[in-house]
């Protein structure tokens, strides 16, 4: 899938992608700088999109780690499978709310998300928060890119400690919530 097809998919499904453009390299690097990949064996990405965060994760993760990428757009999933054919990368064309069906009780060390929570219906959003918390190891981190600081108050219902970072070097500027 070429860049113009990815952009067409981005805009034609704005309610599920929740973005006007893909995450900048700077935003991806800043987000991933908060994650400790050393020794992380199970990593989950919520919202694979064009693969910019996926690529950054794969560059940083240990060779024996497994990555589960959840994406609901079939077009994005096909593109992700072409880009990342590695055996330890699982592209899952399903809702993040079903992650426990794929993790089978194995806790995640890291959950990295760019899901547009502000656009996801409340019931589905709460289910994803709940599943993220219950599938995250006690020492694990949930790291979220978002465009509204108000999401911090929703995350506080599921995570005890939340740190925030902000970057102007993305369009639009973005917050990063680091939760555990």
Summarize this structure as a short list of keywords or feature phrases.
180 residues, alpha/beta, Rossmann fold, seven-stranded mixed sheet, 8 helices, 36% helix, transferase
Note down, in words, how this protein is organized:
The protein is α/β, with parallel strands linked by helices and 180 residues long. The protein has one domain (20-179): Rossmann fold (3-Layer(aba) Sandwich), CATH 3.40.50.150. Helices cover 36% and strands 24% of the residues. It has helices spanning 3-12, 14-17, 25-33, 52-60, 74-83, 99-103, 122-134, 151-155; strands at residues 42-46, 66-70, 89-92, 108-113, 136-146, 162-167, 174-179. Strands 3-2-1-4-5-7-6 form a seven-stranded mixed sheet, with helices on both faces. Helix 3 crosses helix 4. The chain is globular, with a radius of gyration of 15 Å. Mean pLDDT is 90; it is low at 16-20.
On the 0 to 100 scale, the average pLDDT is: 90
The succession of helices and strands, N to C, reads HHHEHEHEHEHEHEE
Amount of helix: 25-40%
Structural shape: globular
Which regions have little confidence, pLDDT < 50, spanning 5+ residues? Answer: 16-20
Mind telling me which CATH architecture this is?
A: 3-Layer(aba) Sandwich
Major sheet characteristics: 7 strands, mixed
What is the class in the CATH system? Alpha Beta
What's the CATH topology name?
Rossmann fold
Number of strands: 7
How many domains, in number, for the residues? 1
What is the SS-derived class? Answer: alpha/beta
């Amino acid at each position: 899938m070429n860049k113009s097809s990815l952009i067409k998919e981005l805009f034609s499904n704005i309610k599920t992608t929740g973005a006007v453009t893909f995450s900048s390299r700077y935003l991806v690097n800043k987000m991933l700088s908060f994650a400790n990949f050393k020794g992380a064996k199970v990593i989950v990405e919520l919202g694979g999109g064009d693969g910019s965060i996926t690529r950054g994760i794969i560059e940083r993760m240990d060779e024996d780690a497994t990555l589960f990428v959840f994406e609901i757009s079939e077009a994005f999933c096909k593109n992700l499978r072409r880009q990342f054919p590695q055996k330890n990368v699982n592209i899952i064309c399903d809702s993040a709310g079903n992650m426990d069906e794929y993790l089978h009780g194995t806790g995640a060390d890291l959950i990295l998300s760019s899901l547009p929570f502000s656009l996801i219906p409340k019931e589905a959003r709460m289910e994803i928060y709940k599943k993220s918390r219950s599938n995250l190891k006690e020492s694990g981190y949930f790291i979220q890119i978002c465009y509204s600081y108000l999401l911090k108050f929703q995350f506080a219902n599921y995570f005890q400690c939340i740190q925030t970072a902000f970057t102007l070097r993305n369009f639009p500027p973005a917050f990063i919530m680091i939760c555990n």
